[in-house]
Specification:
The complex is a heterodimer of chains A (389) and B (259).
Chain A lengths: L7 H18 L3 H9 L7 H13 L18 H11 L21 H12 L5 E4 L15 E5 L2 E11 L7 E7 L10 E7 L5 E4 L9 E11 L3 E2 L5 H12 L2 H23 L1 E2 L2 E2 L4 H29 L5 H25 L1 H5 L5 H8 L9 H13 L10
Chain B lengths: L1 E5 L2 E3 L21 E3 L1 H17 L2 E7 L5 H10 L3 E5 L9 H15 L3 E5 L10 H9 L3 E11 L2 E8 L2 E8 L2 E5 L11 H7 L4 E4 L41 H11 L4
Parallel strand pairs in B: 1-4, 1-6, 4-5, 5-11, 6-10, 7-10
Antiparallel strand pairs in B: 2-3, 7-8, 8-9
Classes of the chains: A alpha+beta (389), B alpha/beta (259).
Bound molecules: flavin-adenine dinucleotide.
Flavin-adenine dinucleotide binds next to strand 1, strand 3 and helix 12 of chain A.
Chain lengths: 389, 259
């Protein structure tokens, strides 16, 4: 029946990744804070590269990449466990050897030109659906691609594109048949930067920012359509669906680490002659945070388990994403509160996390959109109440 | 080259460690078990020698069932197979008895080179390598910061307070290593998955021609008679810097003979 335990291998992998993060990545944390305080980029590029090489040597590479592409394809549950561990540090770092899921939908030529070099880290992708006039209602995009001989000509603007400043190609979604719109009239194109799109950084409350992308008469060969003409919207949903339960996974790692900091601080910080850990007000914040972290953990693992079982995990993923995003913001706020004035300073990473985690409630479906999806699934009867598993 | 690495599961130094009141042995069940840190260097060295020279790396551990976790870690790092000496009769064995049991197991396995960490973080006797070499009648090269195999000989740089000695011995031999020697690898995920399929042989006292009456707590030549918790750390000395702080700190260090 229900079994909540990790297998021996899962536990060992978890311990190994934890050791790697603790010994190799966390020591860079103070440098990250210092660099950011002084307006430099979080880490010099060579340090990030070295770290990634070290990780690759240790075999942390291609964690979710199929074996025929050189990866180790550990599956969704292990991916969540790994993300919980990497989420413990705020050092901006990710393991290499991965590529966007929809790039696997490409033909052999496209795989050679886009998928393989992305896995190898030689090329960088970005995913562009959001527009100034179409965010939550992504079906409403206006970027237009018009056929001209053997090419398509793209015009329009994309915004908030993660990685858009550095990417050398974009998976861009454009309307190819305005009559049909999102119902068979949106197509995904693989567009190299040197085909003519421009990017402009957007400054945010976080330590990194996405980009606005401008397409002005960008000419793209017909063979650069990813998947089928008119099937772009499905690919976009596939891309978003893959990452949804990974967002709370990373947040759980961060929240747990911060709660640990809060517990330690509460034991040593004294007011009115007692450690603040003695006060019920502090204890309740600690207890509530733990309860919420645990809920998020199991909801996220459940969503991953559904994917692993090959089931439709969309509802469970929405539940986990909404819960995890809200949890992380509540926990970081309490942890900051427990640290008092120190929590508000840039000496500690809490305020950094506070700013960064705020994003979780917005991207890849806002809180409100998740609620809308969850409610609709219930109201329309797609999801039955009273089920287990 | 047939290399055997002796590894030991020790309680995590970061967790609370206690002796049991009834038999005055370490409560191994209560603490999280980890591979003794220096043994990771021993495993790494064995793997590096194997990678350079070919051969096979066998892991040998003596310990309760739980020590299988440490075996698995060594196999995940890349060792080929393992021998787990596990028997209730061995519980509470001291260094002399442990070396007797391990020596018997090593005779059974056969070896060109035995590598082990120079001490464990729990008992810290640091005598096992010497005892093993003596019992097996082979050279001991201790505190190695570097190991080179040259035909039938092994050369090490033996770490000392003043630098290192170059020591050479003939194979088969026992080598104990220090941290300086290498940087242990992380078990790769592939290695972790492969470890499951690697052979682990379990041996009991009867399998290694050892008399059960010669090992274990009741027969140990040394005994823990009494133990006491370390006294809590006294509050430190606070030097208030009113221009003289540096000198006062230096005086303090001199008074404790640190400088
Ligand atoms: C840092 C960052 C990175 C991003 N990265 C990418 C990327 O890589 N690629 C990409 O394509 N996009 C990306 N996005 C875009 C992101 O997915 C959108 O910002 C998000 O979908 C919300 O759209 P919007 O900002 O237009 O808000 P809007 O859709 O304008 O929403 C405004 C408010 O109205 C609420 N709302 C909207 N509709 C409803 C409704 N029906 N009922 C109730 N409330 C509603 C929303 O929840 C929100 O509170 C990123 C955004 C950010 C901030």
């Amino acid at each position: 029946m229900v079994d909540f335990s990790l297998s021996d291998e899962e536990r060992q992998m978890r311990d190994t990744i934890r050791a790697f993060i603790t010994k190799e990545v966390m020591p860079l944390e103070q440098e990250v804070l210092r660099n950011e305080r002084e307006g430099r980029s979080s880490l010099p590029a060579d340090v990030t590269r070295e770290l990634r090489e070290k990780a690759k040597k240790a075999g942390f590479w291609g964690i979710n990449t199929p074996e025929e592409y050189g990866g180790i394809n550990l599956g969704p549950i292990m991916a969540v466990i790994v993300a919980m561990e990497t989420g413990r540090t705020y050092v901006p770092f990710g393991f290499g050897g991965t590529a966007d899921n929809i790039l696997y939908a490409g033909n052999e030529e496209q795989k050679k030109r886009y998928l393989l070099p992305t896995i190898e880290g030689e090329r960088r992708s970005c995913f562009a659906i959001t527009e100034p006039g179409a965010g939550s209602d992504a079906r409403n995009i206006r970027t237009r691609a018009v056929r001209d001989g053997s090419d398509w000509v793209i015009n329009g603007e994309k915004t908030f594109i993660t990685g858009g400043n550095d990417a050398d190609f974009v998976m861009v979604f454009a309307v190819t048949d305005p009559e049909k719109g999102a119902n068979g009239g949106v197509t995904c194109f693989l567009v190299d930067r040197d085909m003519g799109w421009k990017s402009e950084p957007i400054h945010t409350m976080g330590e990194w920012g996405p980009a606005a992308l401008v397409f002005q008469d960008v000419r793209v060969p017909h063979e650069n359509i990813l998947g089928e003409e008119g099937k772009g919207f499905e690919l976009a949903m596939q891309w978003i669906g893959q990452g949804r339960y990974m967002i709370p996974a990373r947040a759980i790692g961060a929240a747990e680490r911060m709660l640990g900091m809060a517990v330690e601080y509460a034991k040593v910080r004294k007011t009115f002659g007692n450690p603040i850990a003695d006060y019920q007000a502090i204890q309740w914040m600690i207890a509530d945070s733990h309860v919420e972290i645990e809920s998020a953990k199991w909801l996220t693992l459940y969503a991953a388990w559904q994917v692993q079982q090959g089931r439709d995990a969309r509802h469970a993923s929405s539940v986990a994403k909404l819960n995890g995003a809200v949890m992380a913001n509540q926990v970081v706020d309490r942890v900051l509160q427990i640290h008092g004035g120190m929590g508000y300073t840039k000496e500690l990473p809490i305020e950094r996390w506070y700013r960064e985690l705020r994003l979780l409630r917005i991207y890849e479906g806002t809180d409100e959109i998740q609620r809308r999806t969850i409610a609709r699934n219930l109201i329309k009867g797609h999801v039955k109440l009273g089920e287990i598993g | 080259m047939n290399i055997v690495v002796c590894v030991k599961q020790v309680p995590d130094t970061a967790s609370e460690r206690n002796l049991k009141t009834d038999d005055k042995t370490l409560d191994r069940e209560a603490a999280d078990g980890l591979m003794n840190e220096l043994d990771e260097y021993a495993v790494e060295e064995a793997l590096q020698i194997k990678e350079a020279q070919g051969g096979e790396v066998t892991v040998l551990t003596m310990g309760p069932d739980k020590a299988a976790e440490t075996i698995r870690k060594a196999l995940s790092m890349g060792a080929d197979k393992a021998v787990h000496l596990v028997d209730d009769a061995l519980h509470g064995s001291d260094a002399l008895q442990t070396s007797a049991a391990l020596a018997q197991a090593l005779r059974k396995i056969g070896f060109d080179l035995v590598i082990l960490g120079s001490e464990s973080t729990d008992a810290r006797t640091g005598v096992l390598a010497a005892m093993l070499a003596e019992r097996l009648g082979v050279p001991q090269l201790s505190l190695a910061g570097k190991v080179e195999i040259d035909g039938g000989n092994v050369r090490v740089e033996r770490q000392t307070d003043y630098g290192h000695d170059k020591v050479e011995g003939s194979l088969p031999a026992v080598v104990s290593v220090v941290e300086k020697i290498n940087e242990p690898r992380y078990p790769s995920f592939k290695g972790i998955m492969a470890a499951k399929k690697k052979p682990v042989e379990k041996l009991a006292v009867g399998d290694i021609e050892l008399d059960a009456a010669a090992v274990g707590l009741g027969n140990a030549p040394t005994q823990v008679v009494e133990f006491a918790a370390a006294p809590p750390r006294a509050a430190g000395t606070i030097v208030t810097d009113e221009g003289e702080g540096g000198a006062q700190a230096a005086d303090f260090l001199a008074s404790k003979k640190f400088v």
